[in-house]
Amino acid sequence: MFERSDETLVKQALKGKKSAWVTLVKRYEKSVYNYTYRMVNNGDDAMDLMQDIFMAVFRNLASFRGDSPFKGWLFKIAHYRCIEFYRKKRPTQSLDEAPEQLAEGDATCPEYQMSSSQQASELQRAMQFLSFNQKLVVELKFFQQCTFEDIAAQLGISTNTAKSRLYSALDKLKDQLEVGYV
């Protein structure tokens, strides 16, 4: 079956074709939800963020220039919405501080139900010890399969900074995962 490109769908959505917008949302809703869930570790907050992100994308669709892929633009908006969430939710806590208590998995959340393996839950626990910036780089590199150049462009940092944050995050993850096996 012929699949329309994101850019074609954006152009059609801007012309008022509702089905094009619905196709874009369906194409990315699972990825955006999973991204927000990994960032906030709460199913309800992730769902609210996902809706907020798609509303922002819809309102700003006319500003999409097509210089970069739609997916990158979408996740840049998701990135900023996650930062706003943290600023509103935890105004007195630094984004680099580890949370006092680790959030328990939400049994009603589809992603939690899918991640029934012990390794996935251990990884999720360990990711809570990463700073927000480290989480973002891990998310973009491993879950969104972005290159270091894409990560740098999306976050407005140098490629070397993206690499440094990733390797630092991997060291922290390794330490946290080893603690679970000692």
TrEMBL record:
Among the GO biological process terms of this entry, one is:
DNA-templated transcription initiation
Give the matching InterPro entries: RNA_pol_sigma-70-like, RNA_pol_sigma-70_dom, RNA_pol_sigma70_r2, RNA_pol_sigma70_r4_t2, RNA_pol_sigma_r2, RNA_pol_sigma_r3/r4-like, WH-like_DNA-bd_sf
Give all residue intervals belonging to the RNA polymerase sigma-70 region domain: 24-90
Family, according to the entry, reads as follows: Belongs to the sigma-70 factor family. ECF subfamily.
Pfam families in the record: Sigma70_r2, Sigma70_r4_2
Q: What is this protein called?
A: Sigma-70 family RNA polymerase sigma factor
Molecular function (Gene Ontology), one example:
DNA binding
Q: Which organism is it from?
A: Thalassomonas actiniarum
How far does the signal peptide extend, from start to end residue?
A: none
Keyword terms: DNA-binding, Sigma factor, Transcription, Transcription regulation
- Source organism's superkingdom? Bacteria
RNA polymerase sigma factor 70 region 4 type domain sequence ranges: 122-173
